[in-house]
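Entry 12.
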Amino acid sequence: MRRSLPIFIGLRFTRSESSNKFLSFISLVSMAGLILGVAALIVVTSVLNGFEEVLSKKILGMVPQAAVYSSIPLNDWNSFAKIIEKNDSNVIATAPFVQARGMLSLEGEVNSTIINGIEPESHAKVSILRQSMVEGSFYSLNTGSNNIILGEYVVDKYALKLGDEVGIIISKPSSSTVGITPTFHTYTLTGVFHVSQEIDKWMSYVSMDGASDVVGLNHGATGIRLNLRDVFLSQDSAQKALASISDQAVLLQSSQENLAFSSGDWTQTHGSLYTSIRMQKTMMSLLLFLIILVAAFNVISTLVMSVTEKRSDVAILKTFGASPSLISRIFIVQGAIIGVFGIFIGLALGITLSLSIPSVSAWINVTFDLGLFDNYFVESLPSKIKLIDIVLILVSALIVVLLSTIYPAYSAARTEPVKILKGE
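Predicted 3D structure (tokens):
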């Protein structure tokens, strides 16, 4: 019974505040601040987690997570790929590629594009292109084909359909005094993919042997792309691949002159985006945590006023033998009730908003034709709730609320019943 006494009296004190309208208003403000702070923290962290996931799945599913590049065409790329996979357990799969910059020629307009020459069978193991196809066949880019796969953005912009011819202008080295000669090539559209507007706009895919012939590589690959188990070890894997391929080249192609290799990974092309997301997550979390701190100060104000109002009740309790510890626990319970209700309502609200924000943001964008995400790699605000974030927010908010009850509880415990009762 003695253990439940602080809870019983704390609940009575909390309910009795409704008779004091001003004190009741301050309590509601305190609770509202906690609700908003916790809900906002959950929503912001979930959205930024969503951006991280989209970056990992979409962007890193299309651009090389790590790659090695050769200064001259790699005709025997398969032997290099095998040694890379053998020497690094972080490498799941490898695929050759040819990459060059060119211009799409459509309806009298020219647009920059990155031409990717791929082998469908091996490329399917290192990219999400096959899963991102919305029309046509990914495997239409087989050896010897003269086909092309374009992004949905380009196809929709120029009202293209499967079977249409697409022109590509590419600069090819020549023996003329100019050194570079632009050449025109025609491909048949056999597939459409969709990942994001940014990628749809810039990427185009053709067969690897066709691309190597166009840029004058004689059926060789310009590099080998890696698919990794842990993308955050991409720099290590790129360096290991570079070392492996360099050693293998000494054995297989030591007679070739000007053979040199280099490596790269996603942190060089999109690392700043990931760093920016992480930094924004940290800064926004700190700023929104201030809302919880302000609400905690309101809890302190509420309890201090409650202590002042309940001085006579405290004096009577002390007269009947209540210890300072019991008095302290009564007001800690009172503050905890306000805090726990606010935190858990905020938790429920934050999770609900986080789950609904992708569909709601997409609906608003489409309904009002706002074009909010046209220049980004998403079509709506992504959201991913992580249990660790929820636990951290919950524990942090509870600690702040409990700390905010210490001073008012200590002040109540120091109440001298004789002075208070004499003054009445």
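Annotation: Residues 5-57+273-423 form one domain. The chain is about 55% helix and 20% strand.
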